[in-house]
Amino acid sequence: MTFCGLALAPPAKTVVVYRNGDRFSRGRKFVVNQRRFLTFEAFLNEVTKSIHAPLAVRNLYTPRHGRRVAGLGDLRDGCQYVAAGFEKFKKLNYFSHRRKELRGTRNREDLQVSPPPPSRALGCFYRSVFRNGDLLSPPFPLPLSKDPPLQWDALLGALTEKAALRSGAVHKLCRLDGTVVSGGEELVSGRYYVAVGNEEYKKLPYFELLVPRDSACRTLWYVD
């Protein structure tokens, strides 16, 4: 049996998109793959809804030089873009307000995000969440209020939106040892968890590879 005739699907790309001319836009993360977006237009339609654009998004530009993106094939993994309608690209420092949340730069307009330190300010408790099987994306913060507590289904819905898993919706939340969290009351502030879809939990060195050694969040409290 030969597999020479089988075409391998291109790998998924993770990008962040800002609203054109909106200096307060914090950007929206998207995972782009052939299963989710068959055409560039389908992706632009999703961007329109997700970033709450006032008009339909019809163009994407690079944030520093305003180069127009012609199609899905031009998107580069880990990069940032600006979404616009038919108006001209507006050159702003779109991610200047996030400098304190970002750690390091690369050569291709992308920025590495670091999780905030554990906090209990104003009754808000932070947990950091990895994506199952993903050793490229840093963990994202999950701030939760203890009063009133968020219903578990609503929490999974919020995780689905934030994680943007390649497998789809988040069905469960696991500790780093793979045990499943069954309710919000089990979540501990300052600890790390893994968002999992309908696939099995993948035990990988998430913490060791994705949390910088000099980060304030790098603490033995991650062990559950």
TrEMBL record:
SMART domains assigned: DCX
Pfam families assigned: DCX (PF03607)
UniProt keyword list: Repeat
Domain Doublecortin, residue spans: 13-95, 129-207
Keyword Repeat: yes
One GO-annotated biological process of the protein: intracellular signal transduction
InterPro entries noted in UniProt: Doublecortin_dom, Doublecortin_dom_sf
GO CC entries: microtubule; microtubule organizing center
Domain of life of the source: Eukaryota
PANTHER family reported for this sequence: DOUBLECORTIN DOMAIN CONTAINING 2 (PTHR23004), DOUBLECORTIN DOMAIN-CONTAINING PROTEIN 2B (PTHR23004:SF10)
The protein, known as: DCD2B protein
Organism of this sequence: Halcyon senegalensis
